[in-house]
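Input.
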Amino acid sequence: MSTAGTFSRHQTQFFAWELTRRANADTVESLGSTLVDAQVDLNPHQVEAALFACRNPFSRGVILADEVGLGKTIEAGLVLAQLWAERKRRVLIIVPANLRKQWHQELKDKFALDGQILESKGYNQQKRDGVANPFDSAGPVICSYQFAKARIDDLRQVPWDIVVFDEAHRLRNVYKPGNVIANTLKDGLQPVPAKVLLTATPLQNSLLELFGLVSVIDERVFGDLDSFRRQFARIHQPETLQALRRRIAPLCKRTLRKQVAHSISYTNRIPIVQEFTPGDDEQRLRALVADYLRRPDLKALPNSQRQLISLVLWKLLASSTHAIGGALGTMAARLERLLADTPEPADLSDAMGQDFEALDEATEDDGDGQPDAEAPLNANEREAIANEIAELRGYERLAKRIRDNAKGEALLTALDRAFQELERLGAPRKALIFTESRRTQDYLLSLLAETDYGHRIVLFNGSNNGPDAQRIYRDWLKRHAGSDRITGSKTADTRAALVEHFRDNGTVMIATEAGAEGINLQFCSLVINYDLPWNPQRVEQRIGRCHRYGQRFDVVVVNFIDRSNDADRRVYQLLEQKFQLFSGVFGASDEVLGAIGSGVDFERRIAEIYQRCRDPATIRDGFEQLQLDLAAEINEAMVRTRDILLEHFDEQVLERVRDDSIETRDRFEHLFLDLTRAELNGHATFDTDNGFTLHSLPSPTLAGQVPLGRYKLPRRSEDTHLYRLAHPLGEYLLAQAKSRVLTAAHLVFDYDAYPKRISTLEPWRGSRGTLVAELLTVSSLAGREQRLMAAAITEDGRLLTDNDPEKLLRLPVSSQTALDVAPEPPPALASDLEQRRNQLAQRINERNLGYFQQEVEKLDAWADDLKVGLEQEIKELDRQIKEVHRTATVAATLDEKLHWQKQQRELEQRRGRMRRELFDRQDEIEGKRNDLIADLEMQLGQQAETHRLFIVEWELTG
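Output.
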């Protein structure tokens, strides 16, 4: 808890510098302000990973390879928040398209970083509005891999401070020239000084994948591809394995679930399968539409979009008759406009995307394919289009006649079954139902409206603009008026309002794919996949809304199986058995998620099976081949090698980090609140729960930025304003305290007013003397580090040792008196200060020398790798020369002998050139190495600057 006494201006200045100084990146203290500001309870492995990423000033980046479910996004968020606090704010985050919104929401909610999602439509609109480079933004920029690759020229122009690659295994084949996206991003972002690669599967099929990922970060870790192959081909030999471990240890960190099982409590998934059989009309509609989609020539689907739109139509066909009927009507209307020579929409996907929201993401992952140019229609084409329109309208009418779907009726049964299971678990009676179609969402709303759930249903979709959603939004605004819950973004605030309404008043939430992104529904423990996505990553994302850290109950997952549809049953078996999505503690394994890349291509493979396979046998064969292909993507030996290579099991380290991070966060919080209490004297009323009510502003410059009302620190926010160091009020008070020019004073510290016992200060009770506080700034390694130093002495010449002077400054003061003349530090006190400075400089120097030595060893290994490659080529030529020489010796004819001797001379000449090249390359490599080391040595030099904050006379009472 925070102290309740009074603090002097001298103390608040000391506190302010302690809260904002640049600390050594080796310590949890360097993350102190970030730990205070983060709106999340951090686990020790996450703090350790963030420290690992920030530790070495020479490092050009890291691979964070924790197993699935351990919070790599949080680790990267800590790193980004720390850089943001250091004013390094050119941040680029490249992620799979389906994770863009989730990243945006996580950064905003947990770290108060308000990023911008860039996608094709918004980007092009900014360009039309005259924005030269939309990437040149004031906040973090989030985009997809495809989008980044397509806009690499604009990306190059921004001097990024850091780039984060999520699901970075997409880059692991960068060593292959044919991997265009990976190579484009690697080359275009090569100058970025810091890269963070997040992936649970940095190594799956070949050691060369690890070489590829490391080369994205730093090309001077290993030599070239050939030398890497030669050195580490025998990876199963212990000495080779250990050599590789040493090489990658400084830039690759992996935490396993078993390491954190004792500190993180995860619940299980309980699967329920609900079978159903469609009625005769439903099966007839499905058969007719399936035959239609399998035709080689369809006027309704532009060639450039056929594959993508067909995939959507197969999914809508399995969703509901309402969904497929609406889609068929949209297609018929497009053809009618075409036949009437009426301008049509630029893109069929725009119209289809109104219902199937995931289409936008699939289009983004697919690149920016342009619609087909329409040529004038001839008579035969007009007749064919008219016939197709009539056919589509016929299917549409059949779909509209089918009001009741067997799958919908099965939903009522599934809800009863699942709620009984929740009752057994003691979990709240809440259900999250996912569908891929807005039209199906409307159908389910009408279906459930007639049941007991009717008045407790919440709809969640990409627009959230229905009358109920807007009413919930308006009520939410009134309820939270004056609090930081309201962001000002109607989209974000509507989403928050719907989630809160579901939590407090709802029983069922019916969500489209928008509900799988960026919201926390851990108060719900029932997920119903009314429509089952074919992309395992999407399934995992859905279940992850509920099955996440902080969930108290096992999560029930319900899936539907159409008994009459062999392909649908095979999809479920694949996701349930191969991907293990629906049971266990963590869901899908690292290997299978890593093997499918974006998941979009995987969905297309399934769509191809639906497209070409008509009978159970061919459907079975198609899915078996898909599973074989998937298995081929996972090299079990490499998976085991990865775990051995990257496993860093040290429970003591994590326990120490846990203790240090909790202690540091608590200390920083107390300092911040004590500073705030002293600086807001008369402007606020403080309570005993780490909160305060602001009655008036300390400066008119804060008007419009800082609302009056109740404030609390993160993680204890309730319905108040969140108070952070990065809050405008916090920043103002910190700057005010740091910039104040202080005069000397006599401070009387009250030992009894401090709530805790400080045993080392007890001998000094009743003493008085002189205290000096300084700020030491050390610049080295192209960075800056700041240390606060305090030294104190008694009137009778006894020095306070260790950190007792800092402890003294933490005590409240009972009185303070200005001094006309500043006291002169006694010689013993000046000597103690000098000794403290020297000890600090020595510690910094020793640490930096360690970093320097690590970098030199890396450069030495890189240089040796390149030499090894050349030497191996010469050895291979030696072998060939000997072989040719033996052949020439036993040649049967003069012509043969001359032929082989000529070949031998050519090989010897080539060997001579190679030897000369070896010497030249060795000189070149050595020159580069020496230049790099000289550059490092320049950075290693220290420049220290001492700034005296204040000198006071002190007295300790109590």
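The chain has five domains: 11-40+650-740, 59-263, 279-401, 405-586, 745-958.
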